[in-house]
Amino acid sequence: MTAGDRGGRMRFQVLGTLEVHDHRWRVTPNAPKQRSVLALLLSAAGEVIPTDVLTEELWEGHPPPSARTTLQTYVYQLRKQFVRAAGPAGLPRLVTKHGGYLLDIPEGSLDAVEFERQVASARELLRAGDAERAAETLGGALALWHGPALADVVTGPRLAIYRTRLEELRVHAIKLKIEARMRSGQHQELIGELKELTTVYELDEWFHLKLMETLSRAGRRHEALEVYQRLRRILHRELGLEPSGEMRELQRVVLAAG
Hints:
- The chain is mostly helical and 258 residues long.
- It has two domains: 1-185, Arc Repressor Mutant, subunit A; 188-258, Tetratricopeptide repeat domain (Serine Threonine Protein Phosphatase 5, Tetratricopeptide repeat).
- The protein is 60% helix and 7% strand.
């Protein structure tokens, strides 16, 4: 098989378990530290990661004397896998540069980057008043997720920050989608989804607020007030806090509507 025969673009997935595949086969590394190296390189978005940063991350601040040699072995194994899948002249390329390593991958081949691109596009659509297309775009972006980010990768401090950032962006996208659908008038259709979201993100007041709003608009005032009371109990139990002024004001409005 020539390099040209192998030319299917490789895809990298971090929005769930770490996966690498092309149009024919899966080429995801199996060794835990090798997977961590790949995840770190992908998280750097085409920038060089110094060798010292990689070894500190992989061995949690206590790299053994053999750390650099072992890291070179992991990089060599990754390069072999990439060449086998894409050919010697193809992308991705894992290059040694300025005392570190850089992973050069084709544009659009990392799901996290594609996710952020689609969310940014949806944000512009929403700003332009096209709520329906914004919701559709956000649905496509969220469909790229297949579980918690880097679910099967051992993470040190740097990867933990990257994972948290991705999860926060996911929640942001969910909220944007809810907002877009509400602007499209889909209040009744959102009730079931919002109920589930208030369970998954029970400390996030925003989802409770939107559920109260949709229930109130649907004439289900009693259920809306129950949402407030449930949130109040959760916040008091978990954080020793009361609902925000915005939540209290919405409760007052719902009560007054009765």
